[in-house]
Design brief:
OB fold (Dihydrolipoamide Acetyltransferase, E2P), Ribos_protein_bS1-like, 14 strands, structural constituent of ribosome, about 35% strand, Ribosomal_protein_S1-like, single chain, 5 helices, 5-stranded mixed β-barrel, alpha+beta, elongated
């Protein structure tokens, strides 16, 4: 037998990478049963996620125009940064509530809305205040055409200029940043439209005070008052 034949019959050593052989490297990390199990667990985890729901998600990235939110679905969803009342306060890994509009658009992306989630979350409270005539606290945020945007429970409402005060207001900016009680005078859920009035609250308070004063007024009393208007036939005096 020649040396060449002997060399050919000798078993070849398999290459070793570190402490791992190439066979171990090529071996699948998970077998088919494990993969099926993982798939089933994933499908189970997203089976409860349905369109038209408010879901919790985690902020994973923040861009100039949108915020990417992970709701545990197969892809992340984008939320316009304009839907956040204070974009500077958004943090990575922050938990947010969003409304799931569509599990997959034409580009295969989840469609989310924070404004819709905020609106739906407080809708019952707002509707109850509207139906009962109770007041709600709100903060005047910014001036827009015809009035001021008011923050109610984290959602935006519209305060018409004519409803800011009993008297005509020319400088809307003086009210920005202040908090007042408001009456909700108009609601449209489909359009997410809320109209509020501070004037209605002031008129109600003035009416209540007038009734109290009338109850204690007696003929011959001397009371202090403020002249509000002078006409040909007399003067109007505010007694408080």
């Amino acid at each position: 037998m020649t040396e060449e034949t002997t060399a050919a019959e000798e078993p070849q050593e398999k290459p070793i990478y570190g402490n791992v052989s190439i066979e171990e490297l090529e071996k699948p990390e998970y077998d088919e049963d494990q993969i099926n199990e993982f798939t089933a667990l994933y499908e189970e985890s997203i089976s409860g996620i349905k369109e038209g729901q408010i879901v919790k998600g985690t902020v994973v990235s923040i861009g100039q125009s949108e915020v990417m939110v992970d709701i545990g679905f197969k892809s992340e969803g984008a939320v316009s940064i304009k839907e956040f009342s204070d974009p500077s306060a958004i943090d990575i890994l922050q938990e947010v509530e969003v409304f799931l509009e569509n599990v997959e658009d034409q580009e295969g992306q989840v469609v989310l809305s924070k404004q819709k989630a905020d609106f739906m979350r407080v809708w019952d409270s707002i509707k109850d205040a509207h139906d009962t005539g109770n007041t709600v606290e709100g903060r005047l945020m910014r001036r827009i055409k015809g009035g001021i945007v008011v923050d109610l429970f984290g959602v935006e409402a519209f305060l018409p200029g004519s409803q800011i005060d009993i008297r005509q207001v020319k400088n809307f900016d003086q009210f920005i940043g202040q908090e007042f009680p408001f009456k909700i005078i108009k609601l449209n859920k489909a359009r997410r439209n809320i109209v509020v009035s501070r004037r209605a609250v002031l008129e109600e308070e003035r009416g209540r005070m007038r009734e109290e004063i009338i109850k204690v007024l007696e003929e011959g009393q001397v009371r202090e008052g403020v002249v509000k208007n002078i006409t040909d036939f007399g003067a109007f005096i505010d007694l408080g």
